[in-house]
Write a structure and sequence with these properties.
Elements: E1 7-12, E2 15-20, E3 35-38, H1 47-56, E4 62-65, H2 73-82, H3 91-97, E5 106-108, H4 116-125, E6 131-133, H5 138-141, E7 156-158, H6 164-169, H7 182-187, H8 194-217, H9 223-236, E8 238-239, E9 245-246, H10 248-256, H11 259-267, H12 272-285, H13 289-297, H14 300-307, H15 313-326, H16 330-338, H17 341-351, H18 358-371, H19 374-382, H20 385-395, H21 399-415, H22 417-425, H23 429-437
Helix pairs in contact: 1-2, 8-9, 8-10, 9-12, 11-12, 12-15, 14-15, 14-17, 15-18, 17-18, 17-20, 18-21, 19-21, 20-21, 20-23, 21-22
Length: 445
């Protein structure tokens, strides 16, 4: 590069990316450069820098930016002209140029202000475009306007309002039998179609890059980095604010990356913050049936039962939540009892009975599930569960807690006659039950 060329410098952590200033770029050619990946903090990269990349790197095959604030029309034109996101896009220019790209198979427009009409025009106007990724696009996700019924047949839209695995499974109709196994089935294919290979590899990178980064940072030698990365992972597998749910693709990415075992190793740390973050991630993952099975197979019930005895409220809350999720499955209930989990949950309620924290709702919910088993119902009562639940009904008026207490007491009485007698003999039990039946909340009654 000629020394007279003015240079733009963008800091990327401890590194620097040096780019020639536009338009003084004709002398700066990097014909051997094929891949440019910058991120996640690219907010200081200007449109001029992007133009420089387009002009100076004629053989570029892959260009990935993350965190760009804004790009003007000239930069988009330069990219389209020399080879072919950002949150703010000039969709008129996108439709004018990108739909003419003959080899465009997949396009990621996530985290942009794209609208349904633009998505329709992109898919219908481009003959080569097969898959459109539109995650975290608020305008597109409003109400039911994102229904895939609005999009051309034979085109895949990957978004939170679509069934991602079902969409991808349509590409492997004759291969995959279970939609949630689409990525593993694809990897095990013996004779892979080149076009399909490119699309699946690209989609996998889009969906799993955040999980992979978190898993790598969780193995850092610095415990504060481990803790932050674990909290990111715990949040990353959950999507949506209201009616939050666990994303199956991200859960699979965690499992494939050895995340379950890694989380249990971190849960054994002496640091309460790391214990809390790890158990929170385990709890969130356990909502998924496949992940819950993996948690149990890795000895997770024993680990969670031990952590339920923690004197840290945050650790106790997340641990009780994990046991609550796992106790939904019948065969897990007995495993929890064998690991001492029932007694640990009862002690947890007695320890935090006046805290008003969600730890009580989680613990009562787990006991309610376990008490639904006629054999284990007696054990719940024998280890002090009845007394703990009655105390909770008397002292905690939070609706979520009362709802789970009501379920637990109902299950205790329903399955074992001796428990009915014990309820009648337990001081304050009948009064507590009567009060619950007069609750203003139907879910409690």
């Amino acid at each position: 590069m000629d020394r007279r060329v003015c240079r733009k410098v963008a800091k990327m952590g401890n590194d620097k990316v040096v780019l020639p200033s536009y338009p003084e770029t004709e002398e700066a050619r990097h014909e051997a450069l094929e891949i440019v990946e910058l991120g996640p903090f690219c907010n200081r990269i200007s449109s001029n820098a992007i133009k420089a990349i387009a002009i100076c790197c004629p053989n570029l095959r892959k260009l990935r930016f993350s965190g760009i604030r804004d790009v003007d029309g000239d930069a988009i034109n330069a990219l389209v002209k020399h080879f072919a996101g950002t949150t703010r896009m000039n969709w008129g220019l996108v439709l004018q140029y990108w739909t003419k790209l003959p080899n465009l198979k997949g396009l990621d427009i996530s985290r942009t202000n794209v609208t349904r009409s633009v998505v329709w025009m992109l898919l219908s106007s481009s003959a080569s475009l097969k898959v459109l990724c539109a995650l975290h696009c608020p305008t597109l996700e409003e109400g039911d306007r994102g229904s895939t019924n609005y999009y051309p047949r034979g085109k895949l839209v990957i978004a939170f309002f679509t069934d991602i695995f079902k969409e991808l499974a349509s590409l492997l109709r004759d291969i995959t039998k279970k939609e949630s196994n689409v990525f593993s089935d694809w990897r095990n294919m013996k004779n892979k179609d080149k076009n399909l290979e490119e699309i699946m590899t690209w989609v996998e990178w889009i969906l799993f890059q955040g999980v992979g980064l978190a898993l790598n940072l969780m193995q850092s030698s610095q415990e504060d980095v481990q803790e932050r990365a674990t909290m990111v992972l715990a949040t990353l597998v959950v999507i949506g604010n209201e009616n939050a749910r666990v994303d199956g693709g991200r859960v699979e990415a965690v499992m494939c990356g050895g995340g379950i075992r890694l989380l249990f190793n971190l849960a054994r740390s002496w640091r309460e913050g790391l214990q809390s973050a790890a158990t929170k991630a385990i709890t969130n993952l356990s909502v998924n049936a496949n992940a819950a099975k993996a948690v149990v197979e890795e000895g997770g019930i024993e680990i969670l039962s031990n952590l339920a005895r923690s004197m840290s409220r945050s650790v106790a809350k997340e641990t009780a939540g994990g046991l609550w999720n796992l106790s939904v499955v019948e065969e897990h209930k007995e495993a929890i009892a064998k690991a001492g989990g029932v007694k640990a949950l009862v002690d947890l309620i007695l320890r935090w009975c006046t805290s008003g924290d969600r730890v009580l709702e989680h613990a009562a919910g787990a006991l309610a599930n376990i008490a639904a088993d006629d054999k284990l119902s007696m054990e719940v009562a024998e280890v002090g569960g009845l007394r703990a639940l009655v105390m909770l009904a008397q002292n905690c008026k939070l609706v979520g807690v009362q709802e789970q207490v009501a379920h637990a007491l109902a299950n205790l009485v329903a399955y074992v006659d001796d428990n009915s007698v014990k309820v009648g003999q337990e001081a304050g039990a009948l009064e507590a039950l009567v009060e619950l039946t007069y609750s203003h909340h139907e879910s409690v009654r």
